[in-house]
């Protein structure tokens, strides 16, 4: 088993078959509200706490049944995910040869 498969097995992933009608309706509502929005790069979404990204993530947290302060959780998650992406982007840029 490759590293990618091992990591993916640990992710919380929504199983559409296990969602209740109410959960599906919640996710579909958020999808419908945001379907036409053109989002910037994921890094920009995280750094600016993009409201459309946030609406999607809040709905997913609710459906997954994650407890706690969702706003604070997203702020911390966005910061902790944005930093390594930014570092990786910088390293990749520095490694490019023109």
Describe the protein.
This protein has 98 residues and is mainly alpha-helical. The chain has helices spanning 3-10, 21-34, 42-48, 51-64, 70-95. It has one domain. The protein has five helices and no strands. Helix 2 (21-34) packs antiparallel against helix 4.
Short description:
The protein has 98 residues and is mainly alpha-helical. The chain contains five helices and no strands. The protein has one domain.
Whole-number tally of structural domains? 1
N- and C-termini, Cα separation: 37 Å
Residue-averaged pLDDT:
87
Number of helical segments?
5
Task: Give the fraction of residues assigned to helices.
Answer: over 70%
> Can you tell me the residue ranges where pLDDT is under 50 for at least 5 consecutive residues?
none
Shape: globular
Structural class: mainly alpha
Fraction in beta strands: under 5%
The H/E string reads HHHHH
Major sheet characteristics? none
Radius of gyration: 16 Å
Q: Can you count the beta strands?
A: 0
Topology of helices and strands:
Layout: H1 3-10, H2 21-34, H3 42-48, H4 51-64, H5 70-95
Quick tags:
70% helix, mainly alpha, single chain, globular, 98 residues
């Amino acid at each position: 088993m490759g590293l990618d498969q091992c990591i993916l097995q640990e992710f919380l992933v929504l199983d559409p078959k296990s969602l209740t009608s109410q959960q599906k309706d919640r996710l579909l509502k958020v999808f419908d509200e945001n379907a036409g929005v053109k989002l910037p790069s994921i890094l920009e979404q995280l750094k600016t706490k993009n409201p459309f990204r946030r609406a999607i993530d809040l709905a997913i947290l609710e459906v997954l049944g994650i407890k706690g302060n969702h706003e604070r959780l997203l702020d911390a998650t966005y910061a902790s995910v944005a930093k390594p992406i930014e570092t990786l982007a910088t390293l990749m840029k520095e490694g490019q040869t023109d």
